[in-house]
Write a structure and sequence with these properties.
Structural class: alpha/beta
Strand content: 15-25%
Strand order of the largest sheet: 1-2-3-4-5-6-7-8
Largest sheet: 8 strands, parallel, barrel
Radius of gyration: 15 Å
CATH topology: TIM Barrel
Number of strands: 10
Number of helices: 6
CATH class: Alpha Beta
Helix content: 25-40%
Shape: globular
CATH architecture: Alpha-Beta Barrel
């Protein structure tokens, strides 16, 4: 379970304290959740070693990817066609949206047509990816504490990813909603 679009150390610590498996920080993106490399480094340093830090980006620029890798995240979440240098020492999660081919040159795929906007995922496309992917599939897009359990039960993804569904405003996590989301996920364990 990944809490994404984290913009502050406090929000990262709340998510980690509530049991998030991963913390996503957006970089090099037009998102209202995008943070500076310095802030990303502080957020990554604040969470314990058992929480995976994920640098989420829309960039495909080799220079941008190199800058992100210098932050030493546990994983990078990049567009399907983005090249991550071999031997970069990070897990690669590729984002796909309806119509995209299913990549296999990664450690996981996140089905995310929403791109942090809160629009609900396309269930048919998500099912298609989950059934055909050779790597684990993470579901994102429009998930909230109120609907995540139904999505898990219906599609059985490897994991789930939330950003706007646990916010009081863009980029500001609501600790009660973060806690409720993670509890709903654990009711049947993914």
């Amino acid at each position: 379970m990944k809490i994404c679009g984290v913009t502050t150390v406090d929000d990262a610590l709340v998510a980690a304290g509530c049991g998030a498996d991963a913390i996503g920080v957006v970089l090099e993106s037009p998102s209202p959740r995008s943070v500076s490399p310095e802030r990303a480094a502080a957020i990554f340093a604040a969470v314990g070693p058992l929480v995976v830090t994920v640098a989420v980006t829309a960039t495909t620029s080799p220079t941008g990817i190199e800058e992100i890798l210098r932050l030493r995240p546990g994983a990078v979440q990049v567009p399907a066609g983005c090249r991550v240098p071999p031997g970069a020492g990070v897990r690669v999660i590729r984002s796909v949206a309806p119509g995209d081919p299913i990549p296999g040159d990664c450690d996981a795929v996140v089905v995310d047509g929403s791109r942090g906007t809160g629009f609900r995922f396309d269930a048919d496309y998500a099912r298609h990816v989950i059934e055909r992917s050779v790597v684990p599939v993470i579901l994102a897009g429009g998930l909230t504490p109120e609907n995540v359990r139904d999505a898990i039960d219906a599609l059985h993804p490897y994991g789930v990813d939330v950003a706007s569904g646990v916010e009081s405003e863009p980029g500001v996590k609501d600790s009660g909603r973060v806690r409720a989301f993670l509890l709903a996920c654990r009711k049947g364990e993914i």
